[in-house]
Design a protein that fits this description.
Layout (H helix, E strand, L loop, with lengths): L5 H13 L5 E4 L5 E10 L2 E6 L4 E5 L5 H9 L20 H8 L14 H8 L3 E4 L3 E7 L13 E7 L2 E11 L23 H24 L3 E5 L9 E8 L2 E8 L3 E8 H5 L9 H10 L1 E3 L4 E4 L13 H12 L6 H7 L10 H14 L3 E6 L4 H8 L5 E6 L2 H14 L5 H14 L9 E10 L4 E5 L9 E4 H7 E9 L1
Antiparallel strand pairs: 1-2, 2-3, 3-4, 5-6, 6-7, 7-8, 8-12, 9-10, 10-11, 11-12, 13-14, 14-17, 15-20, 16-17, 16-20, 17-18, 18-19
Length: 489
């Protein structure tokens, strides 16, 4: 990417302070320059307008470093949070609303104008994922942690360019109520759910629903009843109770037999019923290609993948699907996806049912959906990865498989002689036996390969420590369930 000269940098600074309507020179990743004006900023994308009036919406990351700094300081029409219609609750002070929340969430500035890192620190929510433009924070809370008078099992906050965009809180639900005692690889060691699981879930959900509704109604009055979410078929759509305060909408959902959840979103998002504008293929393709990493040792890796930590429950399929969908601009939530996949108590999802249930929503957002069965073939994986698109892979994540992947990944970081490494892993994979255990069925993202060493890189939904691991293709084939899915374009 070409760098601007000092003179041009000074000019850019003057233009940045002059306002969004000034014509200026923009430079893309290939070094090509054009004259245009900035007319809009929305999340990770920017809209520019040529002198002839033609407009283009592109990812900010596809521009030069100087241009990206300009976007951060510019004042474009959509750069600020959308104005909201004042309501009767707006006279309430933040302290009164925080009393209903049970946590110091709100201040004089709206969440949408606040630093995500500062809000996360205040609420005690650790980072979950960070990409070039987006980040998420998630806490699987301890029993004593309360919000709205009930215990949320998961507190997630999403942000773009360090500005909060939404909260997703999940209370009583059939996944976390019967989850394992550990995360990561330990999530396979869960107890068998009791026979009366459905009754236990209903009782817990009813209790949380009553407590949350009471806490909000006491402070913000009676709620509005609305339908919310994506999907013409009804998948992802649900009834909501809605309370508004100073540009924030607090939405209480009751997905029967599944979970009780609270979302905190902008009024504009709530007014639109949770539907978001499509992101065009042009933007998605450019973003995906910009994320492709080609390393000196021959590794080809899809970078900048968002992480979703499934926590101590068997939600690998919905968590992995959420990662793939969010990466390509399709809004998703693993708890809603688990509902579509008819996930069992404590976990266990029909991958085909989950993805078939969401296929309509995926395609409605101009994304494609491919599925196939068969042996692991590097040529097939390359077709997608070379375009910057990961592949969902079903496998048996056994102890032997994880031990091999963990040790190889650790040793790989210190390799300097890649010819020797190739010889070594080729010999090891020829003699390594990895038995299949059907109780460890799992879903990951294949997100890279090395053609010379015959290795693949995969990413688990177990947190940042499992974001990139390596295994040889022959070893991977031994534990493969031979099913693959791709959300692409």
């Amino acid at each position: 990417m070409k760098h601007h000269s000092r003179v041009l940098s000074a000019l850019l600074l003057m233009l940045a302070t002059a306002g969004a309507q000034e014509m200026r020179t923009f430079t893309n990743a290939a070094g090509k320059s054009i004259q245009a004006r900035l007319v809009g900023i929305q999340g990770a994308n920017v809209t520019i307008e040529m002198a002839n009036g033609q407009k283009y919406t592109l990812p900010a990351s596809s521009f030069s470093t100087g241009d990206q700094e300009y976007f951060k300081s510019a004042t474009a029409p959509s750069a600020k949070p959308a104005a909201y219609k004042p309501g009767p609750n707006d006279k309430l002070e933040p302290a009164a609303v925080n009393e209903a929340v049970g946590q110091p969430m709100f201040g004089e500035a709206s969440l949408w104008e606040s630093s995500a890192e500062e809000i996360a620190k205040k609420l005690g929510i650790p980072p979950e994922s960070k990409t070039r433009n987006a980040s998420s924070f998630r806490s699987y809370t301890k029993d004593g942690y309360l919000m709205f008078g009930a215990h949320p099992f998961s507190v997630a906050m999403y942000a773009e360019n360090d500005k909060v965009t939404s909260f997703s809180l999940v209370f009583a639900n059939k996944g976390d109520l019967f989850s394992a005692k550990g995360g990561g690889e330990m999530h396979f060691d869960k107890d068998t759910p009791p026979a009366q699981a459905a009754m236990i879930v209903k009782k817990a959900m009813d209790k949380d629903l009553e407590a949350i509704s009471a806490a909000l109604t006491k402070t913000l009055g009676a709620p509005k009843k609305e339908r919310f979410g994506e999907g013409k078929s009804g998948v992802g759509r649900m009834n909501m109770q809605r309370w508004d305060w100073r540009g924030h909408s607090i939405l209480l959902a009751d997905a029967e037999g599944e979970y009780v959840g609270v979302q905190i979103v902008t009024n504009a998002f709530a007014d639109a019923g949770g539907k978001v504008a499509d992101t065009t293929d042009t933007v998605i393709k450019a973003r995906a290609l910009a994320n492709l990493e080609k390393r000196e040792n021959g590794d080809v890796v899809v970078g900048d993948l968002p992480m979703v930590d499934q926590g101590p429950k068997g939600y690998c399929a919905p968590a992995t699907a959420e990662r793939a969908m969010r990466y390509l601009g399709v809004p998703a939530d693993m708890y809603i996806l688990a509902n579509a996949g008819q996930t069992g108590y404590g976990g266990g999802t029909s991958v085909s049912m989950l993805l078939e249930g969401m296929a309509g929503q995926i395609r409605s957002k101009r994304r494609s959906f491919d599925a196939w069965t068969g042996d692991l073939k590097l040529k097939e994986l390359q077709k997608y990865i070379d375009r910057g698109v990961p592949v969902m892979w079903c496998l048996c994540s056994t102890k032997g498989f994880n031990d091999t992947a963990n040790s190889r990944t650790k040793e790989r970081k210190t390799v300097t002689d890649w010819a020797a490494w190739k010889e070594r892993v080729t010999k090891e994979s020829a003699s390594n036996t990895l038995p299949i255990d059907k109780d460890t069925r799992h879903v990951v993202l294949i997100m890279g390969y090395n053609k010379d060493t015959n290795e693949i890189a995969f990413s688990d939904s177990w947190g940042e420590d499992f974001k990139e691991r390596w295994i040889t293709l022959p070893e991977a084939q031994q534990v493969s369930d031979n099913r693959f899915y791709v959300i692409g374009f």
